[in-house]
């Protein structure tokens, strides 16, 4: 039963109060509640009836609507003696939740009975169609068939084009002339609810494995139509298609395949210290070309958005469509990819496209320089150092390439946190404290002074100050720290302390 059908039931006389544009979900059941937060008892798609017993003040309306919206209900029907308070109307508009007013002379039991009767009738008539389509879907997705025949059948059955797309916007299968899949991928990763209708592309998006898999590594099915106008059999067919594509997606994970196991052991042996001779011998076994150059890519996460088990598909999406060799060691995943030239820029672009799905993930990625097969172990180590430097930046996702690595930077990236804090505090704490108390910029002055190699005029120009003012500040720094900035040793220690902050 569609939401638009609710207002057409003559015996109920429900009056639409909030009607979000282009939102016509399917009603799957009816629930009556007077709890302020009934979300634990909701599974999505319900018409929720409430007599507003939970409302003790205007602020409760927003709490209630936020809870039921998060649970994914289809609509809200409310009445307190035939009245719907303005604060409830405002909250429903804020969350885009359809709201109906129940007339004072209509009992909630009457609404429930009428809607359930409509649902039962629709389900009985739809059952044979759903079962028939399910049999055809399974037959189309037989062994070795791939996604192409399956989507051809669905496209013909529904009378609309459809596509299977990854989180970065890559089209895996589907009709010709796809829409702007990069735009759809962004909507897929940022939408609160699924399915979603993209007004910009006039396409409906269904997540393939949305209940289990983070969207940044999931796939979606795009249909050239507004799902909110579909009948129940059509929605059921789309959901079945998404479920079958989810099975195909799981087949793409080669962790338990023979090649996947060999790749895992190959990467583990490199990280464990395999010799160049051993590496070349293993490359022969797993079929890697020993006449080309390779780059290593390391990735790890510190947040909850992307878990350890999802690093492999994340790497595959970042490096797609290239063939890669992937392995996970401890809390890091590593990939080897053919790299006749530097891959860093292309990886940064791919990560930028996936950025909306990496919010809160604390993803850090390191990329090595292209190297000969005999030097792959060094490439892995370089990628690990780069990744640790990326992790220090503390952003949702950071990529560090080999071009950002210098010998000193590599050393600093591996300094333990307790040593880092002790060293920087010993040298810089007096300056930080002085700046806080006097609203001065001694730390910045020191940094610019060292970056300009102690050149008074250049330092003054960068700070937009007179040279005498710079001299005074440097003298004050020396007095507070007991150091002499004319000595190379003291300059180096200050330089290190500023880099370790």
TrEMBL record:
The lineage of its organism: Bacteria, Bacillati, Actinomycetota, Actinomycetes, Mycobacteriales. Residues 442-500 form the PucR C-terminal helix-turn-helix domain. It comes from the Bacteria. Belongs to the CdaR family. Residues 6-119 form the Purine catabolism PurC-like domain. This is PucR family transcriptional regulator ligand-binding domain-containing protein. Residues 274-389 form the CdaR GGDEF-like domain.
């Amino acid at each position: 039963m569609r939401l638009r059908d609710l207002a057409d039931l003559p015996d109920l006389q429900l009056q639409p109060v909030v009607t979000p544009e282009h939102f016509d979900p399917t009603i799957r059941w009816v629930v009556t509640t007077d709890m302020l937060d009934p979300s634990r008892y909701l599974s999505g798609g319900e018409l929720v009836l409430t007599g507003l017993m939970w409302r003790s003040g205007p602020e409760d309306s927003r709490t209630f609507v936020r809870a039921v919206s998060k649970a994914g209900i289809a609509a809200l029907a409310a009445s307190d003696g035939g009245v719907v308070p303005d604060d409830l109307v405002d909250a429903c508009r804020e969350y885009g939740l359809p709201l109906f007013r129940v007339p004072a002379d209509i009992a909630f039991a009457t609404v429930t009975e009428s809607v359930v009767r409509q649902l039962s009738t629709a389900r009985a008539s739809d059952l044979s169609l759903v079962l028939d389509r399910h049999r055809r879907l399974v037959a189309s997705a037989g062994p070795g068939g791939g996604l192409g025949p399956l989507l051809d059948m669905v496209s013909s059955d529904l009378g609309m084009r459809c596509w299977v797309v990854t989180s970065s916007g890559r089209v895996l299968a589907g009709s010709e002339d796809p829409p702007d899949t990069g735009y759809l991928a962004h909507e897929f990763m940022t939408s609160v609810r699924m399915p979603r209708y993209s007004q910009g592309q006039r396409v409906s998006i269904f997540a393939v494995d949305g209940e289990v898999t983070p969207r940044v590594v999931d796939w979606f099915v795009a249909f050239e139509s507004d799902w909110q106008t579909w009948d129940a059999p059509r929605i059921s067919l789309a959901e079945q298609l998404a479920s079958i594509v989810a099975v195909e997606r799981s087949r793409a994970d080669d962790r338990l395949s023979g090649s996947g196991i060999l790749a895992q052991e190959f990467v583990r042996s490199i990280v464990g210290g395999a010799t160049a001779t051993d590496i070349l011998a293993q490359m022969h076994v797993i079929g890697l070309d020993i006449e080309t150059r390779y780059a290593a890519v390391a990735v790890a996460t510190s947040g909850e958005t992307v878990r350890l088990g999802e690093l492999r598909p994340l790497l595959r999406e970042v490096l797609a469509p290239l063939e890669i060799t992937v392995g996970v060691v401890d809390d890091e995943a590593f990939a080897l990819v053919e790299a006749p030239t530097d891959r860093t820029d292309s990886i940064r672009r791919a990560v930028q496209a996936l950025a909306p799905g990496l919010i809160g993930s604390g993803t850090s990625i390191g990329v090595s320089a292209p190297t000969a097969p005999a030097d792959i172990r060094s490439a892995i180590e370089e990628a690990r150092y780069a990744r640790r430097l990326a992790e220090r930046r503390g952003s949702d996702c950071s990529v560090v390439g080999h071009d950002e690595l210098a010998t000193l930077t590599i050393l600093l990236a591996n300094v333990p946190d307790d040593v880092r804090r002790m060293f920087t505090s010993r040298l810089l704490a007096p300056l930080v404290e002085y700046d806080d108390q006097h609203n001065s910029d001694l730390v910045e002055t020191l940094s610019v002074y060292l970056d300009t190699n102690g050149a008074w005029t250049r330092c003054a120009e960068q700070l937009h100050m007179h040279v005498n003012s710079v001299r005074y500040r440097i003298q004050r720094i020396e007095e507070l720290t007991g150091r002499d900035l004319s000595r190379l040793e003291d300059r180096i220690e200050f330089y290190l302390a500023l880099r370790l902050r």
